[in-house]
Amino acid sequence: MITNAIPFRPDRDDRSAQSPAVEEWNPSALSLPVLRVAADFLFVFGGAVLGGVVGHLLQRSQAFRLSPQQLILGTLIYSGIVLCFLQSDNAYPRVCSLLHVKETETVLRVSIKAILVSLVLCIVARYPIPRMAMLGAWFFGTLALVIGRVWVQESVRKHFAPTIRRRRSLIYGTKRTARRFFTSALHSPMLGIDPVGFVGNSTEANSEIFCNDYFQRDSRPIFRESLSVEMLKRLEIQDVYVCDTSITDFGLKQVREIAQAANCSLSLVDDQEILANSMPTWVWEMDGLFVATAGLNAPGRFYRAMKRLIDIVCSGTLIILCAPLCLLLAIIIRLESNGPIFFSQTRVGQNGKLFDILKFRSMRVDAPKYARSPHDQTDDRITRVGRFLRKTSFDEVPQLINVLKGEMTLVGPRPEMPFITEEYGPWEATRLTVPQGITGLWQLSADRRYAIHQSIEYDLYYIQNRTVLMDIAILLHTLVYAAKGI
Questions:
Q1: Residue 202 neighbours by CB distance under 10 Å
Q2: Is-contact 99 213, C-beta < 8 A?
Q3: Would you say the pTM of this structure is higher than 0.70?
Q4: What is the pLDDT of residues 105-140, one digit of tens each?
Q5: CA 138 to chain centre
Q6: DSSP code of residue 190
Q7: From the DSSP assignment, how many helices (H) and strands (E) are in the chain?
Q8: Is 21 a domain residue?
């Protein structure tokens, strides 16, 4: 999703008519980046000091003794390196990424580069630091930074965002692009956009639209009336964002004339889908020009090898650790109802290859095997134990066997049943170009309440941006997600 060049902007001297893209002096807006940098420094420094102490205590060799002064000095240097890399990697953008996974990936990448640079500096300067102390400082510093940035983001959303001067904006459209833009606006307070609502039509099934976060905490109403000058003035709208990808040239002309008459700025927001008929598109900038390129992001051999290594190590370890729990669940399932403990179903994997997915059985034996999955926990097909399994996602644990066999991966789009993939168009079929996984962006979003193919933007975003560190970031977010019992 990109915001195109603004096709119309009122020509007046009033500063309130400026677009959010035009900077205004705002003490809150100026202090927020400084506070974020300061918070990151404190998180890295505090975590690294703690990790250095723990690592030093675990150091078996007594050849190197680390004084408090050496620990503080080394930690300060390391924290400074981390902040430099965060700045160079654009870790403080005005626009937040989808579900904030990209930010976590950036932290992981920065921490790896920082520890490597620190190690080189220590070797060149012949500065003796115990290896366990350095490893502990790196691990705890990275962990503190990841957790701390999530906490800061939530604090900004709750307490800091209301103090930032924002412009009342109306979103024209109610489909996927509009919802995605709405979420980005709410989670990116530095943009200064205050979404008031959506312009829909009288046939809209819903009365409001929720943002795509974990909890669907924020929503805005859908106005079932045609856009008009009176409507814009009544709602005190300053900016109109057209997020309707099906709008015609004539329709856009009408919206432009209405915005001009109401003295509002107008922006056109394009979903990437309209830039190519059948293939995902990413947009990049070349000396001020926006270039749209159709195609897929194809990672190299290193990514594929590392992804498979992570799958084998993690799935094998989890199978061993979860063995007692699996045995207990198997006994409970068998005691409640007769029938198999495991549920096997044919799913479509990468490049259309069929495989049998494994789950703990959560529905009655006589339930249709290839019907659409229940959307409500009160569905009478689900057993009592099954409700617990589905709520805790314990029914998915046997899929670790699928991962170990290479039929699935830990992170990737969820595999669908054949009768669903047969209805895929070229756009949806893009999901099948990568290994199907247990967890992913869709599972972390509030849109998991709906069918997978109705929220294709999550999988397309992952396919286009996937890296080893993004996979690790999604796994970390999944752990937080599971810890909260969502």
A1: 7
A2: yes
A3: no
A4: 899 999 999 999 988 888 887 777 788 888 999 999
A5: 24
A6: G
A7: 14, 13
A8: no
H helices within 236-297, ranges in order? 249-261
**pLDDT by residue (tens digit) across 320-374?**
999 999 999 999 988 888 888 998 999 999 989 999 999 999 888 777 766 666 6
Residue pair 265/237 in contact (Cβ under 8 Å)? The answer is no
Q: Check whether residue 115 and residue 192 sit in a common domain.
A: no
Residue 208: phi and psi, rounded to 5, are -150, 165
Pairwise CA distance, residues 185 & 191, whole Å: 7
Tokens of 39: 């918070």
Q: How far apart are CA 402 and CA 56, in angstroms?
A: 40
Q: Tell me, what amino acid is at 64?
A: F
Domain range for 244: 2-14+166-270
C-alpha 394/C-alpha 256 separation (Å) is 52
Strand partners, 310: none
Which residues are 283's β-sheet partners?
Answer: 292
The phi, psi pair for 144, rounded to 5°, reads -65, -40
Which of 144, 161, 178 is the last residue before a domain boundary?
161
Cα–Cα dist 57/133, whole Å: 8
Count of alpha carbons within 13 Å of 157, Cβ hemisphere only? 17
Q: Tokens standing for 206?
A: 């819903």
CATH of the domain at 225: 3.40.50.720
224 occurs within a structural domain: yes
How far apart are alpha carbons 441 and 467 in whole angstroms?
14
Helices 27-58, 68-88: axis angle to 10 degrees equals 140
Could you tell me which of 347, 375, 362 has the C-alpha nearest to residue 435?
347
Tokens of 171: 């979103």
